[in-house]
Design a protein that fits this description.
The complex is a heterodimer of chains A (555) and B (245). Chain A is mainly α and 555 residues long. Helix content of chain A is 81%, strand content 0%. By secondary structure, chain B is α/β, with parallel strands linked by helices. Chain B folds into two domains: 151 residues, 3-Layer(aba) Sandwich (Rossmann fold), CATH 3.40.50.300; 68 residues, no CATH class. Chain B has nine helices and ten strands. In chain B, helix 3 packs parallel to helix 5 and helix 4 runs antiparallel to helix 5. Classes of the chains: A mainly alpha (555), B alpha/beta (245).
């Protein structure tokens, strides 16, 4: 057990090193502004998201109590926590078990493969349990307080919270092992991981939108809540049928079905033991497989087409694009920019169509009743909001990592590198916006002109955002990362760029509000906002050129 | 070919001069070895030569092209092999070489000839269409060397080029370096392997604490002590400073 605890400690220390008091002190001393800024941003996000969640849950529990169905909140919270763990912990588990750079190092230590596996799975469980404290505990506490639950509920809540992540993690561990085993046979193994990740992301989004749509409606209107209970109560029930342990835990927590609750506890405790025992046999072999060259019996020799000539810009664009496509962490974080707006439009229309179907309100009729200027502003706001989340540019220089110095040694004008990064990043954002606009035009045939105008505004807005995000990353890139996940996910610049873009969007929203209030028509509002955005584009463009000369060219 | 005049570079983080008033001149046809303890300023000097860093004071000139005013032209003349080779792991070897050829604007016929020649020399043909991350350390180093030489540059700047190479590949690279110099070109390389510097170089520079302690042919460095090895000279020249800077 000494090896297990030593390894667990090592894993936790390396993962959460930034939060160690001693390291925090050093960071505060060396990078005061950045550290304080990071904490302000984290506090803001926690307060903003937590507050929003708490507000929705408070409204929901009040309405559910009125409907005499408060236990629905518990079931929903458990389903969300379970599904959230399955999706969110997937990459964490996969990278921790099989894609970490420590595989060879750990394999050389006098530790049993099962000890390594246990320590890694325990680390995942601890992290997921901490996340569940945010996702699961607040609605359960709200339920307990509002319904005056007895001591039994509070006592049962402890094992539910501690054990809820275990079964999903064990399932993920088996799926990861299977995926690694299959991908090891294939030369382009990263494609499998990328596609798998994106499919999971889309599935999770669909689930969240299904349930998120409900909560928004439920918070506003008692009639809608009735619709929610009848329409979505069955969906929640279907989800618990799909994954019965979530239902057993919910029923057990509510004191309804003790035998199944005890069975759930026993299964949750036994599952990790079985998982470690079964996967332990092949763990060392599988973890080392990823460090080996993929098997390929017939290597392609250099062909004539291999030597095609391209311009410097084209070469840089190609390199930039390939690096995004081939690194699963980059692909799963950056490529959603291309399809997320389209997906959101399609899903929203599907969900609104479903909910509106009962009350005779469809999205077409709802938007048809609004003045075109408002439709244009709503579409621009929705698409602009989504285009604000583009890590392709806010991590463009950071992703160079250790290769940054090498690139600077090449006889390529700095502006060419930056232009390539901008073209790729903006191109991805633009593709997403155009696809979303086409989808809107198909779904809302009567709203073609407002959609086209909204698209133009969004393309201008996206240009400003992209230039600003890139400026920030040129000025303060984080090049000392070890894993690609750190470069694209644990990056303060992504958060800053997103908040700045939303800030501009809010300012434009306020402006549009007054313009509409002053009875200006669609074309007038479009003209004014487009002119402002065009000026912003020019300013940010020149700023980008200046920042490139000032920071990217300098040693 | 390579000319550094009173070059000084201070890193803002620790306010320490990584390179202090460095003056160095390497002619065409010379094979110059740059040696020094860890943290002596070798890599910083190379970064200054290749335009990765700008000096705080002094000038860097490559074949008459000042690095501060004519950086791109100066860089075009250099083939640079950096220390460490964690570059573009997700590209295939061929994609990496094509990227380098595009960057240096090497036309299809020339790049084909160069790539095929060096792939053959370094025995890398079988792996060239696999992703770089699947390469061994030595294979990565061979790839980086091929990429640096793809445009047949007159100046080679190599930071620890022999690290990770197998004896055969190391021998071939050394042969290439000698051949390149014989054609009137310049090779500047840093190394920790004193025997290599001793056998290969026409001139040697010893740097310590950012300052050039000695420079010249092996005979000039010995200055009369004919029996002294480069190792003895190195220890003598660098024994007054700390190890890590």
């Amino acid at each position: 057990m000494t090896g297990f605890f030593a390894l667990l400690r090592l894993q936790l220390l390396s993962r959460y090193a930034d939060f160690k008091p001693r390291n925090l002190k050093t960071q505060l001393r060396e990078k005061k502004g950045r550290t304080i800024g990071m904490f302000i941003a984290i506090a803001f996000l926690v307060l903003y998201l937590g507050g929003m969640l708490f507000f929705i849950e408070t409204k929901m529990i009040d309405l559910l109590i009125k409907m005499d169905m408060p236990e629905m909140l518990i079931t929903m919270a458990l389903v969300l926590a379970t599904m959230g763990t399955i999706v969110m912990a997937f990459f964490f588990t996969l990278s921790s078990l099989y894609l970490g750079r420590d595989a060879a190092y750990l394999a050389a230590l006098p530790l049993k493969p099962r000890t390594i596996l246990s320590a890694k799975l325990t680390q995942v469980w601890l992290s997921e349990t901490a996340i569940d404290a945010i996702l699961l505990l607040p609605p359960c506490i709200l339920y307990g307080v509002k319904t005056g639950a007895g001591i039994g509920f509070w006592l049962r809540l402890i094992p539910v919270w501690l054990l809820v992540a275990i079964l999903p993690i064990c399932i993920i561990a088996f799926l990861s092992s299977l995926l690694i085993r299959i991908s090891a046979l294939w030369k382009h193994r990263e494609v499998l991981l990328t596609v798998g990740g994106i499919v999971l992301l889309i599935g999770y989004m669909f689930l969240m939108m299904n349930i998120g749509g409900i909560t928004g409606d439920a918070a506003d209107n008692g009639e809608m809540l009735q619709s929610f209970v009848t329409n979505y109560g069955s969906r929640i029930a279907a989800m618990t049928k799909f994954f019965p342990p979530a239902g057993w835990a919910a029923n057990g927590l509510l004191g309804r079905d003790y035998p199944m609750f005890i069975l759930w506890i026993v299964i949750s405790l036994a599952a990790p033991v079985i998982t470690v025992w079964l996967l332990g046999y092949s763990y060392r072999k599988l973890s080392m497989m990823q460090t080996e060259t993929p098997g390929s019996s017939k290597k392609k020799r250099t062909g004539k087409e291999s030597f095609a000539h391209a311009s410097q810009l084209k070469a840089c664009i190609s390199r930039e694009f390939k690096s995004i496509l081939r690194v699963p962490s980059y692909a799963t974080n950056i490529l959603p920019v291309c399809f997320m707006p389209l997906l959101m439009v399609v899903m929203m229309s599907m969900i609104m169509k479903n909910t509106g179907g009962d009350s005779g309100k469809t999205i077409q009729t709802m938007l048809g009743a609004l003045p075109p200027v408002l439709v244009m502003c709503i579409l621009a706001a929705v698409m602009g909001y989504m285009s604000g989340m583009n890590p392709a540019l806010s991590t463009a220089v950071t992703r160079e990592g250790k290769g940054h110095d090498f690139l600077k040694a090449l006889p390529v004008p700095s502006m060419t590198f930056i232009r390539a990064k901008f073209i790729v990043g903006y191109g991805l954002g633009m593709a997403g916006l155009v696809a979303a606009a086409i989808a809107v035009m198909i779904i809302l045939p009567g709203q073609t002109l407002p959609t086209i105008l909204a698209l133009i505004l969004c393309l201008l807005f996206c240009y400003c955002n992209s230039a600003m995000a890139l400026c920030r990353d040129i000025r303060k890139p984080r090049l000392d990362w070890v894993t690609e996940q750190e470069a694209v996910k644990q990056n303060f610049g992504v958060l800053i760029s997103m908040l700045v873009s939303w800030g501009i969007l809010i300012a434009l929203g306020v402006l549009c509000y007054f313009l509409i209030k002053w009875n200006l028509g669609m074309l007038e509002v479009f003209g004014i906002v487009a002119a402002i955005l065009a000026v912003l584009c020019v300013i940010t463009h020149f700023r980008l050129v200046k920042v490139t000369e000032q920071y990217y060219c300098q040693g | 070919m390579i000319d550094l005049q009173n070059v000084t570079k201070t890193y803002s983080k620790n306010k320490k001069k990584a390179v202090d008033n460095l003056t160095l001149h390497v002619e065409g046809g010379e094979l110059f070895g740059f040696i020094g303890p860890n943290g002596a300023g070798k890599t910083t000097s190379i970064k200054l030569m290749t335009g990765v860093l700008s000096p705080d004071e002094g000038t860097v000139t490559m074949a008459g092209h000042p690095m501060d005013t004519d950086r791109l032209e100066a860089q075009r003349l250099i083939g640079f092999v950096p220390d460490g080779n964690d570059l573009y792991d997700r590209l295939t070897g061929m994609e990496y070489l094509n990227f380098m050829a595009d960057v240096y604007q090497v036309d299809s016929a020339r790049r084909k000839a160069h790539i095929e020649k060096y792939l053959d020399i370094f025995e890398l043909e079988e792996a060239i269409n696999s992703q770089v991350r699947t390469y061994s350390k030595g294979m990565k180093q061979k790839l980086v060397v091929i990429g640096a030489l793809i445009h047949n540059p007159p100046i080679w700047i190599l930071d620890e080029p022999l690290g990770g190479l197998d004896p055969r590949a190391a021998h071939l690279l050394k042969e290439e370096m000698i051949r390149h110099c014989k054609e009137g070109n310049t090779v500047f390389f840093s190394t920790h392997v004193l025997e290599v510097a001793e056998k290969l170089c026409t001139r040697i520079g010893v740097i310590d604490h950012g300052t050039l302690r000695a420079e010249g042919t092996l005979e000039e460095l010995r200055s009369g002590e004919k029996s002294a090895s480069l190792e003895d000279l190195f220890l003598q020249l660098t024994n007054d400073g700390g190890e890590e800077a």
